[in-house]
Design brief:
This protein is an alpha/beta fold. It folds into three domains: about 150 residues, 3-Layer(aba) Sandwich (Rossmann fold), CATH 3.40.50; about 110 residues, no CATH class; about 60 residues, no CATH class. It has eleven helices and 20 strands. The protein has a seven-stranded mixed beta sheet with strand order 8-7-16-17-18-15-19. Strands 10-2-1-14-20 form a five-stranded parallel beta sheet, with helices on one face. α1 runs parallel beside α6 and α2 packs across α11. The two termini are about 15 Å apart. Bound molecules: flavin-adenine dinucleotide.
Length: about 375
């Protein structure tokens, strides 16, 4: 029986574990935390379910959707979000609606800038040049400039690459459809424990070792060194930070972390019915405030808000700058045969739940 060793039990690791176990592999999963799921694991505060930041499922991918719903029942849910722009003292739809521009005191200037932008092919020199060309300086200042810099923990948007393979091509100005995601399938688990049963089911017949922190991997001996001993496998699948695994041989990859504040309020709802979360696009220290009941459907006379504050704690958002992408390519050169690295941390890419599942499906099919 072939042995598969999987490092990390988030969506990519847990999905790969389930699929390989079904294919007849003897699977071992090493997970540093007490639970699987990473930030998508549902926890409770004052009886209210929440995750580390909102974790909505959305995809156009029929197979990924079918896999998700074979593991956990989803409630159809359309996310609608807003942005607060301090310089206008106003909330606008996110993505921005054409009708919002009409409400802006400087709409004539914005229209003129958009007319210029329409004639241009946006420069892909860097993230800033792209957005300045695509939407003009006024909308860039209101919606992109500070938000992007604090979101990625960078000094300037010129640091980020603009190839957009790493991120949704941003925020086209929309008319009509005011959902955040336009994907065909979107939702959130019906169960009050969110995605937890997805992980429990994926790992039920698999040896999963929790609180097993992976320290490094030796590509020559194929040994994974952990706080609970040494492990190996015929196939090794990594889903954690690749620089940790290779002892930072090429230096530390740059990520932005988050502090997460939970605030309970003595009212049934804090945000209007249609709002799931609000982005704060200016120099506020936080990026987003989420009302979890809107996502989980929890019933209570109280409401729980989650506030995300960019910080040096944790490594969640991989900074997509040229030096960091080159550094990641160097790490890829260290992979031995039958070693695979998938998922958000394993590929050093800003991606979502659907991508993590898709990569596990593709890898399991190929093995
Ligand atoms: C704040 C936030 C909000 C998000 N919201 C959404 C959303 O709404 N929709 C969406 O589609 N995506 C969202 N995402 C992204 C999405 O959640 C991830 O892409 C997806 O969960 C990644 O799964 P993964 O398996 O690749 O990685 P992870 O879930 O990060 O799994 C990695 C696992 O490895 C473990 N681990 C890490 N280091 C070690 C170590 N040294 N030793 C052992 N174990 C280790 C971790 O504990 C974790 O369980 C969000 C991300 C963030 C940060």
């Amino acid at each position: 029986m072939k042995k598969a060793l999987i490092i990390g039990a988030g969506f990519s690791g847990a999905t790969a574990a389930w699929l390989l176990q079904k294919k007849g592999y003897a699977v071992t999963v090493l997970e540093g935390d007490k639970n699987p799921g990473g930030g998508t694991w549902t926890q409770f505060y004052g009886g209210h379910p929440y995750t580390f930041g909102p974790r909505i499922f959305f995809t156009w991918d029929q197979e990924v959707y079918a896999h998700m719903t074979s593991m956990v029942a989803l409630r159809k849910f359309n996310t609608k979000t807003w942005t607060y722009v301090e310089q206008d003292s106003q909330f606008y739809h996110y993505p921005l609606q054409e009708a919002d521009i009409r409400l802006m005191h400087d709409h004539e200037r914005i229209d003129a800038e958009l007319a210029v932008a329409k004639k241009k092919k946006p420069s892909v020199k860097n993230f800033e040049s792209y957005w300045l060309d695509a939407i003009g300086p006024t909308l860039y200042e209101k919606f992109v400039h500070h938000y992007s810099e604090k979101m990625w923990g960078i000094d300037s948007n010129q640091e980020l690459v603009a190839d957009f393979n790493w991120v949704n091509k941003g925020t086209p100005i929309r008319t009509g459809d005011d959902r955040l995601y336009t994907d065909q399938f979107q939702g959130y688990p019906e169960d009050k424990e969110g995605y937890n049963s997805y992980f429990k089911k994926s790992l039920m017949d698999v040896q999963t070792i929790y609180e097993c922190y992976v320290q490094r991997f030796d590509p020559e001996t194929r040994i994974v060194h952990t706080t609970k001993g040494e492990f190996t496998g015929d196939v090794i699948i990594n889903t954690i930070h690749i620089d940790t695994l290779f002892s930072q041989a090429y230096g530390k990859l740059r990520y932005c972390g988050r502090d997460f504040l939970k605030v309970m309020l003595p009212i049934e709802y804090a945000l209007p019915p249609e709002m799931t979360w609000i982005h704060y696009s200016g120099k506020e220290s936080f990026t987003r405030v989420t009302e979890f009941k809107k996502i989980t459907g929890h019933q209570s006379p109280h409401t729980l808000l989650g506030i995300e504050i960019p910080s040096k704690r944790g490594r969640f958002y991989p900074v997509q700058s040229e030096p960091e992408l080159k550094r990641f390519e160097q790490y890829k050169g260290l992979y031995p045969t039958n070693f695979f690295s998938i998922g958000r941390l394993g590929t050093f890419k800003y991606k979502g739940i659907e991508d993590a599942i898709r990569e596990a499906l593709d890898l399991a099919t190929s093995l």
